[in-house]
Design goal:
By secondary structure, the chain is of the alpha/beta class. Helices cover 34% and strands 16% of the residues. The protein folds into 2 domains: 266 residues, Periplasmic binding protein-like II (D-Maltodextrin-Binding Protein, domain 2, 3-Layer(aba) Sandwich); 103 residues, D-Maltodextrin-Binding Protein, domain 2 (3-Layer(aba) Sandwich), CATH 3.40.190.10. Helix 5 links the parallel strand 8 and strand 9.
């Protein structure tokens, strides 16, 4: 099987990959030729919001398994980086679709970005605040008087909303700019640190506890889950250009095809977590084998089981995200947005078409019987 998808790093270099992307067509506008079938493939580029890792396993799986090609697409995956804003790449015309968190994009929309959430892949939030057991932090109210870490850059709003709901003013904590690692937490400089279930939480569990000589365990930690606190916000979504959706029927058709193949890729990652983790590793991710598998498993939990079908934007979750974005101030008193976003901020039109086709093909887009696997982390995630 020929796979025409390419993986490009955030700095534009071709990533080292073992996906055997034989016969890759060149990028650019227009169609490329699929020599295996004799047909034309539509070039499509996807901008990720972070570096290559299993957070994006479904897209890499869709590439590896030929699902994009099956839909007539020649997909280039653009790796993200700390200084890359996916929506800026999308609105500048340098990508056809982008992956980004909803609250971050709501701010861009209010500032004039014409983009639409066309598929809400993550139904649940992966953001948590973790602490050592002896700190006694089991709920947001316990953050009062503590040193609390946050990455910032739009990642802080669930934390701030949880504190606001628990009547803990930001002035009652010592807010620390947290690096994108857990070093400050492990050193004791941060009492409650921000951690994604699929990444930083695992980083702690991959570290040797100096008190025991063994790896830290979940029993050593307390976790505040914003899903449980009612302040979770929608995260990874597929974003498209609103103006092109309205004016370019070919682009709108491509959006349906791209969603369809991507959801099929996520179904593959659900049913083949080990293989999906290896696909991401082979695509150039630098994360260790056990960490990559942990990430695949935890990301699957954010998607499956699905309430309405993977990619559907549920009104209650959208409204909660918008409400928090409008009503939660940061340390400067600013909120993400000051007014409701336009109707074009999201649409279920394209994902509904994709899901209908997938169901007709016998693809399970609900995952009602999904059960996560058990992953054993190794030191440093190896």
């Amino acid at each position: 099987m020929k796979h025409s998808t390419r993986i490009i790093t955030g700095v534009g270099a071709l990533a080292v990959t073992a996906l055997a992307l034989a016969g890759c067509s060149s990028g650019g506008s227009g169609s490329s030729t699929d020599s295996a079938s004799g047909g034309d493939l539509t070039p499509v580029s996807l901008q990720l919001q972070w570096y290559s890792q299993a957070q994006f396993a479904g897209y890499y799986a869709a590439a590896s398994q030929g699902y994009y090609e099956d839909e007539g697409l020649d997909v280039t995956i653009l790796e993200g980086a700390a200084d890359i804003v996916p929506i800026d790449v999308l609105t500048s015309g340098d990508a056809d679709f982008a992956i980004s968190w909803v609250p971050k994009v709501l701010g861009s929309i209010e500032q004039g970005a014409a983009v639409t959430d066309i598929a809400q892949i993550f139904e649940r939030s992966g953001t948590t605040q973790i602490s050592m057991k002896d700190a006694g932090i089991t709920k947001p109210a316990d953050l009062k008087g503590k040193t609390v870490g946050s990455w910032g850059y739009g990642n802080e709003w669930e934390l701030f909303a949880g504190m606001n709901k628990a009547d803990v003013p930001l002035g009652d904590i010592s807010l620390v700019q947290q690096a994108f690692d857990m070093n400050g937490f492990l050193a004791g400089d941060i009492q409650a640190a921000q951690a994604m279930t699929y990444n930083e939480y695992a980083q702690v569990l991959e570290t040797v506890n100096p008190a025991t000589g063994s790896l830290y365990t979940p029993e050593d930690l307390n976790v505040i889950d914003w899903n449980d606190q009612g302040t979770a916000m929608l995260q990874d979504a597929i974003w498209a250009d609103s103006d092109k959706l309205a004016s370019d029927s070919a682009y709108a058709d491509t959006a349906v095809k791209f969603i369809k193949a991507s959801v099929k890729g996520w179904a593959y990652a659900r049913d083949n977590a080990e293989d999906a983790a290896k696909i991401v590793t082979d695509a150039g991710s630098q994360l260790g084998e056990s960490h990559q598998l942990w990430m695949t498993n935890e990301v699957n939990k954010l998607i499956w089981p699905s309430t309405s079908g993977v990619g559907m934007i549920n009104q209650d979750q959208w409204d909660q995200t918008v409400s928090i974005a409008k009503g939660t101030p940061n340390e400067t008193g600013a909120t993400i947005i000051t007014a409701d976003p336009p109707e074009t901020a999201y649409s279920n039109e394209y994902v509904e078409k994709a899901l209908t086709e997938l169901k007709d093909e016998g693809v399970d887009v609900m995952g009602a019987d999904y059960k996560p696997i058990t992953v054993t982390l190794k030191e440093n995630g190896q």
